[in-house]
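Comment thread on ticket #2218

A.B. wrote:
> Attaching the input chain for the structure job we discussed in standup.
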Amino acid sequence: MVKTLKDIDIENKKVIIRCDFNVPIENNHIIDDKRIISSLETINYCLSKNCKIILMSHLGRIKEENDLKKNDLRIVAKRLSEVLKIDFKFINKTRGKELEDAINKMKPKQIILMQNTRYEDLIGKKESTNDSELSSYWASLGDVFINDAFATAHRAHASNIGIASHLPNAIGFLVEKELAHLEELKCPEKPFTVILGGKKVSDKIGVIENLITKVDYLLIGGGMAFTFLKAEGYKTGMSIIDDENIEFCKKILKKYEDKIILPVDVRVNKEFKNEGTIKQRDITEIDDNEMGLDLGEKTTANFEKILSKSKTVFWNGPLGVYELENFKIATDKILNYLVDNNIKTILGGGDIVASAKNAGVIDKIYYASTGGGATLEYLEGKELPGLVE
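C.D. wrote:
> Ran it. Output below, let me know if you need it in another format.
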């Protein structure tokens, strides 16, 4: 079993904390600092133990030189300093004398944030391939390693599993909370309903296969609903279709037809944009030149009727094209229905969590997971490399 932060001795030690500061940024402005705020409990606990704290995180992907400036952690350092309300050092390096000297000069209760770990991916992908030399070097900077980045737990990178292989290690409070809430879905209070949206069926096959035997109802929305509808023989016009997985949809629908609930009507447009000839169509009426971009009123009402009987709900992926104002109606309505009726709901995945935040209900949801791919892989029953002791 993975050790938690309170299971190991960190008093007066140099503690490396792998955080998840992979925040969305637009026009040099952090538009959602939830992941930064979520790291504070672990950081403050380590401060209370007189630790010297070395913070590590990635930000975005580094494939070329231009990505370095775009994914500079300096903007995170500024926001972190504001919420921590203490000064700390940002070191614009991932290795070398400047970083080493700064760490060697640290006093208890001081913090250093080093530059984006994925800067090491620019040449040789050393971070994302768990380069042994880099792992060993980073581990040499501290005495203890704490993994508090659940969103990267499904990756075997140098900054998580690599460092952990060299140092006494444990998970932080954020990861501990994530696991505790996701564990609730293994033996949920019933009736248990899962809502799945998003674009592709391929992204959700593992989750469907692992949860279908546990759920009372599986509500399908988003772009993936049209692959299921096509598998049922309906015409789907220009809607997005995952052709490679139509056979999977046919088989799962046949085996669990009493559990899987598909749309009966949708909102369509002739183009993928917010304005246009927007209509509500029954699924038998979609024209060849139309694409489904959201669920219709009848489907939303059907979903609400099922949810009214549910004790536990897990939701991954919006029900429509949420970035377009006219096609986020079903997602917003169901989010508000769950909150208004105090239905225990766990959100998993960045898109649906962002949707809940935009709808103004994120603070009223029972739990919103910070993990994306890690959450889905955990629910598929896979072992997450970053959580292996």
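A.B. wrote:
> Thanks. Noting for the ticket: Residues 329-340 form the longest helix (12 residues).
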